[in-house]
Design brief:
about 260 residues, alpha/beta, TIM Barrel, 8 strands, about 40% helix
Length: about 260
């Protein structure tokens, strides 16, 4: 899953693909590099980011969604039912909800369209996060147990609105309402997430601040090595989707490991 941020302020590439021409070029580049899904968002989720109105989100992204949907599978990164419905009508096939179904109407929209609903674990909007990877160590008991329980509660809300569990994807929300150690533990135990939820698991570790546990001075664009290691670990542990900024590099790493680990014929 390749990332296309149509925003001026995303933590890694804010502003780079904000104009319509740049956003379309980003879609084309992601597909050339081998993305299976293009994830388009118009509202930054960096800590402290201000909410963006549905109207502004649509003005930024709707034409890009139409363009991408004619070429690839598209997910829309939004917590707004209004935005989600318009983008699904424009050809998107999935909603990437980073709020853990704070608004249950998103499930209604997904059900009506027969779309996939990606539920990402979080505990409130990023505007309330004090900084990158800053969260109390006491915020969780066992982080995997707590995250799975809270995710299952959201999944039950979705199925209570008529969705099938088979339409859901689980994202543990690395970096959202979690400190670096908590995010790293969730990544380490990806296999547990897959087993405990029984649905496809999406891992989005690419360029995130928790990766500085191995290189504390690395800025987002200098976290490629750690991002690739995270992707390889997640893929080996059974993750179905990898949400990444660097599609070609990630695909090379995953595909080569699969080739090397395949039984010799």
């Amino acid at each position: 899953m390749g990332v296309c941020n149509v925003t001026p302020d995303s933590f890694s590439d804010g502003g780079q693909h904000f104009s319509p021409d740049d956003a379309r070029a980003r879609v084309d580049a992601l597909l050339r590099e081998g993305a299976d899904v293009v994830d388009i968002g118009a509202e930054s989720t960096r800590p402290g980011a201000k909410p963006v109105t549905p109207e502004e989100q649509l003005s930024r992204m709707l034409d890009v969604v139409r363009y991408a949907a004619g070429r690839a599978a598209v997910s829309v990164d939004t917590t707004s039912p209004v935005v989600a419905e318009a983008c699904l009508e424009a050809g998107a096939i999935a909603i990437n909800d980073v709020s853990l179904l704070a608004d249950a109407a998103l499930a209604d929209v997904a059900m009506k369209a027969g779309a996939t609903l990606i539920l990402m674990h979080a505990r409130g909007p990023q505007v309330h996060m004090r900084g990158f990877s800053q969260y109390p160590a006491s915020g969780y008991g066992d982080v995997v147990t707590d995250v799975v329980a809270e995710w299952n509660a959201a999944a039950e809300r979705a199925t209570g609105r008529g969705m099938r569990r088979s339409q859901l994807v689980m994202d543990p929300g690395l970096g959202f309402s979690k400190n670096a150690a908590q995010s790293a533990e969730l990544l380490r135990r990806t296999r547990d997430l897959v087993r405990e939820t029984g649905v496809p698991v999406l891992i989005g570790a690419s360029r995130k601040s928790f990766l500085t546990v191995v290189d504390e001075t690395a800025t987002p664009t200098l976290r490629l090595g750690a991002s690739l290691a995270a992707a390889l670990h997640a893929a080996r542990a059974g993750a179905s989707l990898l949400r990444v900024h660097d599609v070609r590099a990630t695909a090379q790493a995953v595909d080569l490991c699969r080739l090397l680990e395949a039984p010799h014929v």
